[in-house]
Write a structure and sequence with these properties.
Layout (H helix, E strand, L loop, with lengths): L1 E2 L3 H9 L1 H4 L6 E2 L8 E6 L4 E11 L3 E6 L4 E11 L2 E9 L5 H28 L5 H5 L10
Antiparallel strand pairs: 1-7, 2-3, 3-4, 4-5, 5-6, 6-7
């Protein structure tokens, strides 16, 4: 996803929960730092998850493990110009196959697309779209586990 902001601004949006909570999770136990484990909370769904930072290269890459069994998520940042960054998210290491793997891929692709959409709106326009909360409102369905 192309984000029209400097790479340092976009990178910081993923490691600083004071920013990230504007477009993704609602609460975090701390900032992402190499080797650190933090807990992210989605209070509207009553769920949380621990993430461990495996690799952190400023303005280039964040690699985390999360879930049980653990999978890896890489957030890659490429400065296209001084005020333009391209973000790619790769999620891999799933311990399932067949239809279960297809479901994981679809769910995670959808989820991370929503995160990137929210990031773009927030960083480029200062708009909090509440996409994560609105994706599965309690009035319509239960959050998929």
């Amino acid at each position: 996803m192309l984000i029209r902001r400097p790479v340092s601004t976009v990178f910081e949006a993923f490691i600083d929960p004071d920013i990230t909570t504007n477009f993704w999770f609602t609460k975090s136990s701390g900032k992402l730092e190499l080797g650190k484990t933090v807990t992210w909370h989605w209070e509207m769904y009553g769920v949380s998850g621990e993430v461990k930072v495996q690799e952190l290269i400023p303005d280039e890459k964040i690699s985390i493990n999360w879930g049980e069994p653990a999978t890896t998520v890489d957030f890659l940042f490429k400065a296209l110009r001084e005020d333009m960054t391209y973000v790619t998210i790769n999620h891999y290491g799933f311990q399932v196959s067949g239809d279960a793997l297809i479901k994981e891929i679809k769910d995670n692709t959808s989820g991370f697309t929503t995160v990137l959409d929210g990031l773009k709106a927030y960083l480029e326009h200062g708009i909090k779209l509440n996409l994560i909360a609105d994706k599965y409102p309690a009035e319509v369905m239960q959050h998929p586990k």
